[in-house]
Amino acid sequence: MKSSLDHIPPRKQRELGRALEILHEEFEDALKQGTAEFKKRGRILKIILFGSYAKGGWVDEPFTMKGYRSDFDLLIIVNDRRLCEFADYWYKAADRLIRDTSIETPVSFIVHSRREVNTYLKEGQYFFSDIRKEGIVPYELDDEPLAEPHPLSPADRLRIAREHFRAKFSFAEGLLDGFRFHSSKDRPKHAAFELHQALEQAYASVLLTLTNYGPPSHNIKFLRSLAEEQDRRLAEAFPRDQHRERAWFNTLNEAYVKARYSKHYEISEEALSWLGERTAILLALVKSVCSEHLQSLESSPS
Q1: 72-78 and 107-113: which strand pairing?
Q2: For residue 122, what are the CA distances in angstroms to 10, 125, 297?
Q3: Model confidence pTM above 0.70
Q4: What's the CATH class of domain 154-299?
Q5: 14-22: average pLDDT
Q6: What is the H or E stretch that residue 202 is in?
Q7: For 144-179, b where at least 16 C-beta lie within 10 A, e where not — what string?
Q8: What is the mean pLDDT of the chain?
Q9: What CA–CA distance (Å, rounded) separates 289 from 229?
Q10: What average pLDDT score do residues 198-206 get?
Q11: Is the separation of the CB atoms in 195 and 275 below 8 Å?
Q12: Pick from 33, 38, 131, 49: which is nearest to 83 by CA?
């Protein structure tokens, strides 16, 4: 795999270096108090940069109409799948990456064990095959290569993509209907939860249809970032140029837990109305992007 970051501007290289420092520091801190043997042996084996900053073509335009900025997308490979638990080992790192003023570029990361990644490659998970092919390794503990990918046949790729799209997209549409019902009954918490789930399923629809991979996350900001890396047109649904609208999206991101369990969770009618309108736009974009992808697979030689 590649290791050079020379195509990335020096300022961005410094930001990425700082992000890696934070990931290592917080992971080591999370392991300090552990008495279990797997924690004592816990290691980050590789960190792989993928997506637009690995391939080129990133966008860094926070002051334009849409306020869009590409993320640093990172795959962190650890030596034990139990170390992948976000709440136990990675949430402090994620928080610091957001708050560190020396890192202007958003950072998104997924964590898997080496065994998991190698299994995905052998099963033809083309999301990981693309990372293996195009990713850049700014850190590795050892030089053990990842498994050789086993490509799926065009017929299998089409079948799997169709199954994902049919399941996920119709689910997202139903959840948007649920949001509208609860909104009409003046149930803002119910409406916010249903809308959060509609967005989660919409982004999962794109990721699974286009890559056959969907991370186990309820963070719609994270899922949005990964999905928009697959097709930049999806960014049109939620512009980032207005602080108020960014704040509304962040409030909705909290709805998965807080709308159900916190008596203090609040979201305004104005915010719900705007978020619902933009979600409907997103679903139309998702349908277009996924349909184009399926048509491309259908026309591929078998």
Answers
A1: parallel
A2: 36, 8, 21
A3: yes
A4: mainly alpha
A5: 98
A6: helix 188-211
A7: eebeebeebeeeebbebbeebbeebbebbbebbebb
A8: 94
A9: 12
A10: 98
A11: yes
A12: 38
